[in-house]
Specification:
The protein contains five helices and no strands. By secondary structure, it is mainly alpha-helical. The mean pLDDT is 90.
Length: 83
């Protein structure tokens, strides 16, 4: 089965400088991305534009997230028990 180009590109973008982010983000893409609605997919892709340190702080709840859509997608990422 051929994997959609969008997923291949996202997996590549999920490869970060911090192993913790690599694991969390790639697992999220593998398990949940396909079930997201278009606005959530767009928010996830915007989230990937954040610097690693900021992204990790968002996911760990250290830094507040002003953007409502980014907050929602981070909540979804946190819902996975592996994280």
């Amino acid at each position: 089965m051929n994997e959609p180009e969008e997923l291949r590109r996202l997996r590549w973008r999920c490869r970060r400088g911090l192993l913790e982010l690599d694991v969390m983000l790639q697992a999220f893409v593998d398990r949940a991305y396909i079930s997201l609605v278009p606005s959530e997919r767009a928010a996830f892709q915007r989230l990937l534009s954040e610097p690693d340190v900021v992204l990790l702080e968002y996911i760990n709840g250290v830094q507040p997230i002003a953007d409502k859509e980014l907050r929602r997608i981070v909540r979804k990422i946190r819902q996975y028990p592996d994280f």
